[in-house]
Structure formats: C-alpha cells, structure tokens
C-alpha cells in the first residue's frame, strides 16, 4: 500500500483526480481519499508539523502500515536563497536531465573545491521561473528546525526528479527567520512546514527505505516582490495587509483560517470576511496550479512506489496459498504445539525456496494413516518425518 | 507499473569533518571523481545515516549508498573469540570500511549492521598510528579486511596497497587480507611497492600514493569485480618486493554456492587465478573453506571444487587452510530472516545452540570432516585449522 500525505486539499486536488481516488465518507478526522483496491490512501494532514505528524500517525495506525508499504509526502515549499542568489546544497540535473552536479558549499557560502567532485558545475538551480513553476524536487535531507535534528530518507528509486534539502519549521517563514537560517542552516534549499515531521512520525511505523518526499517550489520565500504580491502557501508576513498569514492561511484578528480547512470557494465565502475571500481563493488556486503543473511526475512516482510495494509483498517465502493451507492442516491434524508450528513453518519455507517437493511426503503420511494423529506425541513423529524429507 | 533502483553509489554522503581537513578532502574528491553522476549529500556524522531507525539492510544494499567519514575512538580491536586467530597470540582486527560491495546472502554483516550502505573511513593514517603504538609493545597479527572486503573496492581506495606498504615497513606486523575477489590486479599492488622501495620514501610521504587503480573514471561494474576482466594476466616485470607477512586469505566456494549465494563476488576460476598469482609474487596465501554452505549434493559440489584446487594450485605452497561450516549468532540470523524471507540459505532450519545457529551437529561433522579428510590426504595436519577443533 502507498500512503500519500498532503497538507492542503487544494494541493491534493490534482493528485486525487489524476490517481482516480475517491473520498472516504466514513472518515471525519482527516480527509482520506482511496483507490478502489485500495492500494493508495491519500490523506490531508492540515498545515504544520504537529498536524502532519498527528495525521501520519493516525492513518498509518488505522491501516496497520508495515513492511511492504510506502509513504510519500507531497507538498509545496519555499525556495531559500543564499546571499548571492544561489541555492545551497542541492543535487542538480544538467540540461539533459542527468544529474549534473552536487554543489557543496563551504564555510563562506561559496562553491568550493568539493563541487568539482561531481563533474561539471551546474548553474544555480530551480529559479528558472515561468509563471508559478519553480520546479519539483525529491528531498534527500530534512532538517527539523525545532530540534536541529537531520533526517535522511533512503534514495533507492531511480527518478528523473531533481534532489534538494529542506528545512521544516513550525513557524511562518518571516524575513527575520530566513535571515537567521541563511547563517544557521546555510546550504539548505527549501523551507516547508511538514516534511521532517512526516518523517519522524512515519519512522515509528516505516523505515527510511519506505519514505519519500516530494516538494514543488511555489515561491521564493522572502523575496520582496513575492511579499508584495500574495502570501505563499508556506506563509509569509505581508506588508500591505499588516497581518501574519500562516502557512497556507490567513489570520484575521484572533481567527486563523487555513486553506486545508476550506474545500470549496463557497465555503471560503462562508468563513472568511469578504475582503479576504479573494485572497484565500487566489492562494488556493495558486497551490493548486503549482501541484497541477507537476501532477504527472507525482503520479509517476506513486506508480513506482506501488510497484515497489507489490514486489515487497511477493518476497515472502511461503506465498503459495496451497502450501499455507496444507501447513495449517498439518498443524491442526498433528496437534502441533507453538514451537512445533514454528519449526514446521521454517522447514516448509526452506523447502519452498529450495524447490524441494515436501507436499508429496505429507500426502504419503496421510495415505499411511500417520496423519491425523491422536495427540501431540504423534505430531512430533510427523514433524520428524517431514524434517527427514526436507533436510536429507 | 515498474521501477528501477538507483545504481550503487548514486548517492555519496560526506561527513562534515572531511571538509575540514585537506588530506581527507583530497581523498574524498578522488573517490567521488569516479562517480560523475553521483549526488553528494553533506552530513554531520556518519551515524546520522548509518544508524537510522528501522533500516532494511537488504533493500539498501540493492541501491547501496556510500558514506565517507572520519573514524574516531578506538581504531584497532582485539580479535573476538568467534574469529579465527590461526594460532596468533596478539590477534587484532581493524575496519577501514564498514560493509561490503559484494553481496553474499549468508554474510553476517547483513545481520550485524543496521544499514546496508557502505562506509569508508578516510583516516587510515590514524589506524596506522594506533598499530605502530601496539607494535612498540609486541608483534601484531592484524586482520584488515574483516567487516568488509577491501579488495572489492581497491580501485577506489587503494587501501590494500597502503596496508601492504605499511606492513613491509614494520617487521613486527603481519596482516591478513581476506577476500572473495577474483582476478586481482596484483601487478599494481606490487608496482606500488616497487616504486616505494626504490624511492625509499617514508610511509607518511605516501599519503597520496597512486597505485594505478584510481586514475580515470571507473564504471561501477569495474569497481565491483577486481577483475574477472581479463586484464590481470600480464607478465610480472622485475622482482616483486613483497613481504610474506602479507597474508592473502581467499575464501573458496563451489560453483553452486557462488552462483546462488555469493552475488557480485569473483568466480571460482577467478579466485583460483588470483591465488596462483599471489603465490607467484611471494605473498603468503591462506585458503578458507569457511563457511562451508550446505547445498543439494554438497559432496559433489565441494568435491568438484577441491579437484580444481588440487589440479591448479600448488597447495604445498599454501601457508595454511581454514575449515568451518556456517554458524551465526541468533540475533544476526533473526535480523537476516526478517529482511530476506526469500533466501534459502538464510531460511535454512539451523539449530540454535546457546545463541549460535549452525547446522545439526551431524551435518556439521560430516561437512567439516569431509573437507579436513580431503586436505589431509595432500597436506600436513598442522596446516589445517578446523573451526570446531580450534574452539574446543
């Protein structure tokens, strides 16, 4: 199963549509959209690390996530800029789609010798803006700004997506915070409010090889021109409004509304002061457009995760249903204890993997009247006979 | 739906400390330059990546990442009881690397380490210093390739060459280089020694010794097998300067075992060629029939292998022989069984004896006695070290 987590409904909408997911009407805590199988579950977490962690923990618990499952966190992020307008540590794709370089920045914020390790230097990344499209990234390094802990999802699947590092904060990315980060967390590429939290909550259920993080850059975070326009989904103080706008939302007096809370424009009109409606709608439309412009890459990645999940399931030693049924029958007919059951399963697992025809020996036991037995003692003899057949 | 995994070393994680030291940095640049398309990720400490929670060794090994780090704390350890000292009193081991490029299904590393990624420690010189301190007290027998196979990536690191140089200069030191590599390019190792001997340069001056392995760009497949490439059958020019205190220990396995369980390792023929070449050059050679792995018709499989060994290798020149059947700690096997449900060698129903899993005593005796008897027919008893008898 593949679990997709996204903060906002307007972000998720294009993905839901592309993957053909349907809303689960029996869920009210977090919105869930599932495929028919259901092999894909997409959940809307809400904005910020606490909401994200809570949703991830709740959904993974609900479905009993474990080995074989994959988690994908998708969302928007702000691009962080260095002093010189270039982005810090990032793996870049060259002009031809191949990985071009991994520019490593030294103490002084400039590209240093290590850059040459990875072949040709690439020009600074993503900020080839066209409309709202700043690029889509697979995250290879996540910094939790609050705890200062760094997390590294495994990068196992081959992908054409560029890679980037990301800081996750719980606060609105203010100009002051960005200036602080330029010093304290130099070298990071993106800023968001969920990814490190999703990793930490997800890691209670899944390993780093089961978690992927995709971020689409929606804005430049602290650029003046952006500040004067609209608030990004990551949330930035707006000078013209004189209000703090939270990540994906807006604060009016003591009331905070986030885009994830509102599904439709009608609902927006109901909950927002008239003056704010157009603004929130615009913001929702923007994150929607940003994700929509990369929905093919996102759905393509989900398909890869599905295939990976499928393969993982097929790795089990006794996947053959008839073998499983026969094992259950022997256990019952032979009055096997728990220890004997474990031993039998291990013998059978080995036999199946080694191509040993153990089932024939069991059929003989039945035809000879050895099975079923009247008690556990008889069962032990059966176990010995099966062992003899498999191990010799 | 389908997916591809990243090629090994598509991602290289580099510790902060590496950036701060000129020598480490240069070595890192040298290693990374072999992988022009790699993504380099800067990390605080190698354990931030290597020791993450809930990793899956096997999945990671399929798309293995590389970590370049500086090892701290104790660098040389007294040999563990479960390791064969081969009668040496001052038995130590060290790890310049963690994990292996080869992929033996039954390898204890798969149960011992939390991660399938490979770590290369760049401060080999610090290890040398620690060995020199020990040598002031007593002679040292040191296994340098225990938790890895140094020869597998000699073209990347040049570490085997450095160890040989170091050993040549320290009369009290004997090293064992254990490997499953085939067609080893001994010429380069020897040439490097020649050059050093001629120049009379000190160890410390050899920090950047070009052993002829690392020049140019290497494809991953080149790195994997140190040969089986047909390039190493060049004539040996000049007298080899090789100390017999350098012991090459080759693990030999039958075709069936190599084909089914020892992925990416040198072929049996390639290993035998390497044994012959090592003997020609004056290296001390040990042959390890350890671990012996049970397989269908094991007598014939091991019999064919021994026929080849006796036919092609002048066994009287072999220093000694090590014999032992598969054994593994309970904890490691538990980890391996969880991660490799589809591996017959891992799922074999071993017997648990005080926390150590092994074949039944009967099978253990049969296999080991069979091998010892074959060796006894051609070799003196004193050259044969049987694992069981060593530890009784």
Describe the structure.
The complex is a heterodimer of chains A (392) and B (392). Chain A has 392 residues and is α/β, with parallel strands linked by helices. Chain A is 38% helix and 19% strand. Chain A has helices at 9-19, 49-63, 175-184, 195-202, 224-228, 265-271, 274-292, 295-313, 321-333, 338-354, 358-367, 376-391; strands spanning 2-6, 22-23, 32-34, 40-44, 70-79, 90-93, 99-103, 136-144, 149-151, 162-168, 190-192, 211-219, 249-252, 255-258. Chain A has a five-stranded mixed beta barrel. A two-stranded antiparallel sheet of chain A has the order 13-14. In chain A, a hairpin with an 8-residue loop joins strand 2 and strand 3. In chain A, helix 1 runs parallel beside helix 7 (274-292), helix 1 (9-19) packs across helix 8 (295-313) and helix 11 runs antiparallel to helix 12. The longest helix of chain A is centred in the C-terminal third of the chain and has 19 residues, at 274-292. An eight-stranded mixed sheet of chain B has the order 4-5-9-10-11-13-14-18. The longest helix of chain B is centred in the last third of the chain and has 16 residues, at 361-376. The radius of gyration of chain B is 20 Å and the shape is globular. Residues 197-240 of chain B have low confidence and may be disordered. The chains are: A alpha/beta (392), B alpha/beta (392).
């Amino acid at each position: 199963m593949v679990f997709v987590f996204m903060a906002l409904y307007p972000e998720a909408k294009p993905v839901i549509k592309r993957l053909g997911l349907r809303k689960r009407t029996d869920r009210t805590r977090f919105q869930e959209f599932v495929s028919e199988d259901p092999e894909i579950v997409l959940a809307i977490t809400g904005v910020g690390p606490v909401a994200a962690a809570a949703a991830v923990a709740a959904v993974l618990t609900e479905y009993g996530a474990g080995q074989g499952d994959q988690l994908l966190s998708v969302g928007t992020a702000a691009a962080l800029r260095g002093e010189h307008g270039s982005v810090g540590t990032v793996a870049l794709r060259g002009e031809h789609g191949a990985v071009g370089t991994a520019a490593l920045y030294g103490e002084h914020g400039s590209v240093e010798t290590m850059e040459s390790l990875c072949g040709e230097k690439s020009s600074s990344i993503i900020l080839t803006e066209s409309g709202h499209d700043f690029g889509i990234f697979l995250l290879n390094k996540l910094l939790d700004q609050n705890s200062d802990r760094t997390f590294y999802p495994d990068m196992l699947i081959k992908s054409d997506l560029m890679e980037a590092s990301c800081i996750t904060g719980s606060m609105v990315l203010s100009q002051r915070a960005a200036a602080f980060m330029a010093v304290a967390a130099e070298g990071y590429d993106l800023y968001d409010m969920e990814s490190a939290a999703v990793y930490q909550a997800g890691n209670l259920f899944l390993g780093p090889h089961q978690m992927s993080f995709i971020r689409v850059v929606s804005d430049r975070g602290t650029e003046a021109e952006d500040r004067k326009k609209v608030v990004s989904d990551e949330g930035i103080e707006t000078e013209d409004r004189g209000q703090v706008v939270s990540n994906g939302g807006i604060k009016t007096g003591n009331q905070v509304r986030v885009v994830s809370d509102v599904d439709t424009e009608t609902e927006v009109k109901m909950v927002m002061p008239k003056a704010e409606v157009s603004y929130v709608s615009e913001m929702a439309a923007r994150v929607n457009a940003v994700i929509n412009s990369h929905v093919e890459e996102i759905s393509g990645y989900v398909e890869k995760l599905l295939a990976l999940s499928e393969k993982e399931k097929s790795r089990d030693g006794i996947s053959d249903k008839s073998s499983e049924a026969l094992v259950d029958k022997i256990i019952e007919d032979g009055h096997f204890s728990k220890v004997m059951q474990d031993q039998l399963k291990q013998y059978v697992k080995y036999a199946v993997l080694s191509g040993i025809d153990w089932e024939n020996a069991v059929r003989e036991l039945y035809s000879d009247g050895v099975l079923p037995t009247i008690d556990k003692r008889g069962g032990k003899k059966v176990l010995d006979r099966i062992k003899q057949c498999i191990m010799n | 739906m389908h997916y591809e995994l990243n090629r090994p070393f598509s991602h290289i994680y580099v510790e902060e400390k590496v950036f701060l030291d000129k020598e480490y940095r240069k070595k890192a640049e040298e290693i990374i330059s072999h992988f022009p398309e790699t993504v380099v990720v800067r990390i605080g400490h190698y354990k931030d990546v290597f020791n993450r929670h809930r990793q899956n060794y096997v999945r990671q090994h399929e798309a293995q990442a590389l970590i370049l780090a500086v090892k701290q704390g104790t660098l040389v350890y007294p040999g563990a009881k479960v390791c064969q000292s081969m009668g040496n009193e001052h038995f130590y081991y060290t790890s310049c690397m963690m994990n292996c490029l080869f992929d033996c299904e039954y390898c204890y590393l798969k149960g011992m380490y939390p991660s399938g990624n490979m770590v290369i420690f760049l401060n080999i010189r610090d290890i040398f210093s620690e060995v020199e301190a020990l040598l002031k007290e007593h002679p040292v027998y040191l296994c340098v390739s225990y938790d890895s196979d140094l020869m597998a990536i000699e073209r990347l690191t040049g570490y085997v060459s450095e160890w040989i140089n170091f050993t040549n200069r320290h009369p009290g030191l004997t090293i064992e280089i254990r490997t499953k590599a085939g067609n080893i390019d001994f010429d380069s190792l020897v040439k490097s020694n020649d050059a050093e001997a001629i120049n009379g340069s000190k160890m410390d001056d050899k920090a950047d010794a070009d052993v002829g392995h690392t020049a140019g760009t290497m494809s991953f497949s080149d790195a994997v097998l140190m040969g089986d490439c047909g390039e190493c059958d060049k004539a040996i020019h000049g007298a080899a300067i090789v100390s017999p205190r350098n012991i090459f220990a080759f693990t030999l396995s039958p075709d069936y075992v190599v084909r089914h369980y020892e992925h990416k390792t040198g072929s049996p023929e390639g290993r035998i060629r390497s044994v012959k070449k090592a003997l020609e050059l004056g290296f001390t050679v040990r042959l390890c029939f350890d671990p012996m792995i049970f397989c269908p018709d094991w007598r014939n499989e091991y019999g064919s292998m021994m026929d080849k060994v006796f036919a092609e290798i002048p066994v009287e020149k072999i220093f000694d022989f090590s014999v032992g059947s598969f054994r593994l700690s309970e904890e490691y096997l538990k980890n391996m069984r969880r991660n490799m449900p589809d591996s017959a060698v891992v799922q074999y129903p071993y017997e648990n004896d005080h926390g150590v899993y092994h074949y039944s005593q009967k099978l253990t005796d049969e296999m080991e006695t069979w091998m010892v008897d074959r060796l006894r027919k051609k070799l003196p008893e004193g050259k044969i070290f049987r694992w069981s008898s060593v530890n009784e």
